[in-house]
Amino acid sequence: MSRYLTELYQNNMKSSGEDLLTAIIPLMNLLSLTAIGLVLAHPKTQIIPRATFKLLSKLVFALFLPCLIFTELGESTTLENFAQWWFIPINVLISTAIGCFLGYLVVIICRPPPQFKRFTIIMTAFGNTGNLPLAIVGSVCHTADNPFGPHCHSRGVAYVSFSSWVSVILVYTLVYHMMEPPLEYYEIIEEGVEIEEEQAVNDASRPLLVEAEWPGIEDKETEHSKTPFIARTFQSISNVSESSFPDIEVLGEGGRNSPRSSPRSIRCLAEPKVMRRIRIVAEQTPIQHILQPPTIASLLAIIIGTVPQLKALFFGYDVPLSFVTDSLEILGGAMVPSVMLMLGGMLAEGPIDSTLGLRTTVGISIARLLVLPVLGIGIVALSDKMNLLVQVDAMYRFVLLLQYTMPSAILLGAIASLRGYAVGKASSLLFWQHVFALLSLSLYIVIYFKIISYV
User: Fold this and answer.
1) 111: helix, strand or coil
2) Angle separating helix axes 372-385 and 87-110, nearest 10 degrees
3) pLDDT at 377
4) CA-to-CA dists, residue 174 to 118, 180, 291, angstroms
5) Nearest residue to 213 via CA among 84, 114, 338
6) Nearest to 88 by CA among 157, 171, 175, 172
7) Residue 145: CB partners within 8 Å, gap ≥ 6?
């Protein structure tokens, strides 16, 4: 009996050690790539100039990432599993809603400056659902003893890609409007600080963290992108002129002096005031930016994957267009190393001075990196018990759990730059979150591997 217990203990210890090693090695691979990027881009060495990393970000955004998404998502998608994956985008919405609640708690507990309350909630709620999860999945599947079985990489990339379009829609609609400068503080700083910040944003020294996931953002600015447009539209205050509303003047046949043809009477006759303001805001929503290369690649992959006749042309052995998918697959293979090198280049710039406050920065990081993953484990476990998940698919559960574990989305820095609101705060917070995420991801991936091994 004593010998049996000793052997059992040794086997358990060995098994635990192997599980720990299996979980840590993929992160060490990513950390090594990040460290190389940091050394290459460090201001003291400047082995690779900063402009090269900007070019690399454009290649990832417009070429490497779309190629990876198209080849892996298109091959994995069928009509049957497309219907089974419905919980993946729902999980993104659930994680975002819980993140908003945690962000509200951070506002109550940490009491950030009043003008950054919405910013605090946004940075807590919206995590990275694109590049970083794809890099983690690729690194995990690169190890021979991964717990996900065959077709690990294609399934993992497919699940992550299928979830990212939900986040993109939320960012370019909800987040875009929530990131507008607060009206009461915009009116105060409009003549001073706001102008200085705008000049810094348009300067060549724009932080890499700001435009890493949206290259060329400076070309997307509009007349109202850096103004509190919604607040001015909906809030009836005396210092808002009629020119604040772009299509406010509508003249009738009676001319400008006719009482029935005044802008106010025309508005009342044409449509209710609230509906008209909603329409104006909708017209200023940059919904057109949703159709970017990664999103287009996802749509094409889903269409081709769910139509057997089209799929037979692109995917499989000896298919007519196999040379196209093979070429795209080669390009997609550069995505993971490029993303991690780019992350190293971002971290090499260091944190930007921020007036957000240490307490708020720590609060957001703890809520996003430590508290939210614990709640995510409960949500996924409850969903599994309710039979909402794909059965006997460890990668499916792993991707769902990763959605609760990521640091704040780098794309939020781009939106902050586009709106001219808290750009330095976003860059600083993203820097510290990605540094702390190296530790939190190591911890939770070990926990996730343990959870998955018991499923």
Assistant:
1) coil
2) 150
3) 95
4) 12, 11, 16
5) 338
6) 157
7) 18, 22
Contact 157, 137 (CB under 8 A): yes
Take residue 314 and report the two structure tokens written for it: 């692109």
C-alpha span between 398 and 380 (Å, rounded): 10
Which three-class secondary structure state does DSSP give residue 68?
helix
Q: Tell me: pLDDT of 6 over 80.
A: no
The mean pLDDT value for 297-313 works out to 90
CA pair distance 97, 100, nearest whole angstrom: 5
Q: Which amino acid is at 35?
A: A
Span 126-154, average pLDDT: 84
Q: DSSP label at 243?
A: G
**What is the SS3 assignment for 127?**
strand
- In angstroms, rounded to a whole number, what is the distance separating the alpha carbons of residues 34 and 47? 15
With beta carbons less than 8 A apart as the criterion, state whether 94 and 355 touch. Answer: no
Residue 83 tokens, joined: 């219907």
Q: Give me the residue label for tokens 């007349």.
A: 223
**Tokens representing 398?**
């792993």
Q: Supply 445's token pair.
A: 């991936």
d(CA 12, CA 3): 14
Mean pLDDT of 323-339: 91
Whole-angstrom distance, CA of residue 184 vs CA of residue 133: 38
Residue 364 has pLDDT above 90, yes or no: yes
How far apart CA 56 and CA 97 sit, in angstroms, is 33
Selected residue with higher pLDDT from 218 and 203: 218
Residue at 230: amino acid letter: I
Residue 91: half-sphere exposure toward Cβ, Cα within 13 Å: 34
